[in-house]
Every structure is written in structure tokens, then in C-alpha cells.
Amino acid sequence: MLGATAAAGDTEAGEKLDAAIRSIGALDEAAMREAAARLDQLIKPPGSLGRLEELAIRLAGITGTPVAERPLRKAVVVMAGDHGVCDEGVSAFPQEVTPQMVLNFLQGGAAINVLARQTGAEVVCVDIGVKGDLAHERLLSRRVRGGTANMARGAAMTREEAIRALVAGIEVAEELAERGYGLFATGEMGIGNTTPSAALLAVWGGLEAKEVVGRGTGIDDAGLARKREAVERAIAVNRPDEADPLDVLSKLGGLEIAGLAGVIIGAASRRCPVVIDGFISTVAALAACKLAPGAEPYLIASHLSEERGHGLALRKLGLAPMLHLGMRLGEGTGAALVFPLIDAAGGVLREMATFDSAGVSKG
Ligand SMILES: O=C(O)c1ccc[n+]([C@@H]2O[C@H](COP(=O)([O-])O)[C@@H](O)[C@H]2O)c1
Ligand SMILES: Cc1cc2nc[nH]c2cc1C
Questions:
Q1: Which chemical reaction does it catalyze (predicted)?
Q2: How far apart are CA 338 and CA 122, in angstroms?
Q3: Which residue in 149, 226, 233, 242 is a FRET match for 27, CA 20 to 30 A apart?
Q4: CA–CA separation, 332 vs 5, rounded Å?
């Protein structure tokens, strides 16, 4: 694990990243055994609550608490960043939509605000690299740079910038954990960000551009061809070293992708579960696990996005989504919808009667 970041140099940010990665612990096996034993005592045929039972056991292992006293406090961290590769004509929408949507997240009118309200979660919006000026009292400003460079012509960012974005994400997760949040969802906003996500997945998944490039916000056939070409060119121009996750992430990634990878590492280091949203979020999770393999058991997949490549990214992580709703919005919308299932899993363990207490005969 250390090898991945040792080459980052001994900057303060590099050391912070290494320390967070090192502090990720294994799941608590004893808590998991206790939760599993309790599930088998509850008035239901063993295993009959299916994936809800798996979820309950894993939550016990993540938090180290077999039966939680109350539901976890929830935060959707929406990281926003812009992408130089938009110059290649890879999105159906103009770049100014990124800051415009950030303002909507802060005003409460975006889809994620509605779904977060419905599911009892806080939306935390972070400017990690939006192009142009953005200021709002509720916006967390952690800007590393005002958007990436065009990866089809050179590195999207420097190694140091990628490390700073990762550390910004780690610190956001740590601050939220300090404030009592115990369950995180990854959300993002960044016009053009399905293109770097596809490039990262192509490299880490050993896949061709055509297998991982999809229509994103809804680009037409000509745009799809430009997008595939941009991914192929970005890989050819940058020649990322597959064995060095920071090299791949900095050359082909995005600031919000690195920031979310940091959120995942930070949450895992605090023993908090992280619900992964769609395509971009899943690629961020892949980045996090490349840097910190110990983060993987802290991940909960939410939904299967319509975006081509999402299923492949999930499979690479060994994750199975819970919902298939045909969504492809991002922002953390699919992840927020899984919060009630997580609360339900905890509620079953906490509130169901046992065969003994309810006087029900065992099979
Ligand atoms: O989460 C997904 O699976 C997803 C799939 C397609 C598009 N998006 C969102 O749409 C934007 C990226 O799309 P594009 O076409 O501009 O690359 C970005 O803001 C994402 O949040 C998100
Ligand atoms: C309007 C709009 C909202 C979004 N939310 C996440 N990505 C988005 C892309 C667009 C274009």
C-alpha cells in the first residue's frame, strides 16, 4: 500500500495521504459474527431477508458495533470540478453548467437535494476545481485548481495536484466524521467527467475505449466518436504507468474524481461506510482501492447507472448494485436512494423479536 504513495515525495499532503491509507483497519470479525448470530435468532427463516442481512453484517463489521443503537447520520458529499477535455467536444452540455448546478445544490433545488431530504441526509457541496469564481456561504471551497488541463493533449493535472485533491477529500470526510456523520455517499458534478472516468477505467480495467465510453449527459453519435478518440488520444499521449495509481489518476483523472477517492479513504479510515453512486463515483472508488486496497470492504454499491462501463467498473471492484432504476444523473442520487435500505438493515437487527422472545417455534 505504501508503495503507491511513497513516490509522491515527502510533502505534507503526501504524508497525510499515506497516514490515512495506513490507518484503514480490517472489518471487525467478532462484530460480524455477533450480528450474523443475532440475525439467525430473529423470527424469520435463516437468510430470508437476503441482501439486507448481508448489509447488516457488513455494517457491523465496518462500524465495529454488532447492533447499532440508532441509524447513522448521513451525508452526501458532492464534489464539483471542471474538465479541460471539454475542448474536444465530449459533452452534450456546456461547461458553465458545472458552477450553475453547484449554485442549485446550495439553493436546494437539484435532484440530490430532494432525494437527500427524502432520505434524511445532508448535502455537502465541495468546490474542488470548478472553472471560474464561485462563492457561497454553504459551499466548502477546497479548490486545487480551476479545472483540469485537456488530457487529450497532456496531463490533466500534476501528481502533486492529484495528491492535494485526495487529501482535500480525506479532510472533508474526517471533518464530517468529527461532526457526527457516520454514513457517506459519493456525489459529483462536472461537465465532461464521464470522459476521464472512461479513460481511468480503460487503463485499470484493461479495456478498450469503445467498451467504456458512453453517452454521458446524452451526446450524439458524432460526439460519441469524438469522445472515444479523446480517450484513446489521452492514453497514447500520457502513457500512464498502470502500476502507479497516482500517475494514472493525475494524468487521466479529474479533481472531483480524486477528491471522492479521498472521501472514500477518509471515511474508511474512520470506520464509516460509503455508498457509491454511478459511473464517475465508481471509478473514484476504483482509484481509492488502487491506492488503498483496505478501503474496499467499506464500499456499498447503490445502483447500476445507464452509462456504458458502469457495470464493468462495479465488477472490477466485486460490487453488486442494489437498484436498477435506469438512472444516469450522478450528484449522488442513486446512492441516496440506498440510505433507507441501510437504515432498514440496522432496524431489523435492532428491533425484530427473536424466536425465544416471541414464542415462535423453530424449524
Ligand atoms: O453517475 C453517472 O452514472 C452519470 C452518468 C452520466 C452523466 N453523469 C453526470 O453528467 C455529467 C457528466 O456527463 P458528460 O456527458 O458531461 O461527461 C456529470 O455532471 C455527472 O454527474 C453521471
Ligand atoms: C442539468 C445537469 C445536471 C446534472 N447533474 C449532474 N450532472 C448534470 C449534468 C447536467 C447537464
A1: 5,6-dimethylbenzimidazole + nicotinate beta-D-ribonucleotide = alpha-ribazole 5'-phosphate + nicotinate + H(+)
A2: 14
A3: 242
A4: 28
The amino acid at residue 174 is: E
Closest-CA residue to 248 (of 257, 259, 236, 239)? 239
229 is catalytic: no
pLDDT in tens, 222-255: 999 999 999 999 999 999 999 999 999 999 999 9
* Å from CA of 93 to ligand 2 middle: 8
Q: For the chain, list the domains and their CATH numbers.
A: 70-341 (3.40.50.10210)
**334 Cα nearest atom in ligand 1:** 1
Ligand 2 near 355 CB (within 6 A):
no
Ligand showing the shortest atom-to-Cα distance for residue 307: 1
How much is the ipTM here?
0.99
- The most distant pair of C-alpha atoms in the chain lies apart, rounded to whole Å, by 70
Judge whether residue 363 has pLDDT over 90. Answer: no
Structural Rg of the chain based on CA atoms: 20
Q: What single DSSP character describes residue 48? A: T
Contact 189 CB / ligand 2 (< 6 Å): yes
Tell me the three cell numbers of residue 350: 435492532
| Residues of the chain by 3-state class (helix, strand, coil), percent to 5 | 55, 10, 35
Give the span between the Cα atoms of 132 and 135, in whole angstroms: 10
Ligand 1 centroid – CA 193 distance (Å)? 6
- CA-nearest of 343, 17, 290 to 174 is 17
> From CA 248, how far away is CA 82, in angstroms rounded?
18
Any ligand 2 atom below 6 A from CB of 334: no
Backbone angles phi, psi at 136, to 5 degrees: -165, 145
Q: Which ligand is nearest to the CA of 216?
A: 1
Report how far ligand 2's centroid is from the alpha carbon of 294 (Å): 32
- The reported pLDDT for the residue numbered 8 is 57
Q: Which ligand is nearest to the CA of 302?
A: 1
Name the active-site residue from 122, 175, 331, 351.
331
Task: Tell how far the Cα of 330 is from the centroid of ligand 2, in angstroms.
Answer: 8
Q: What cell was used for 29?
A: 470479525
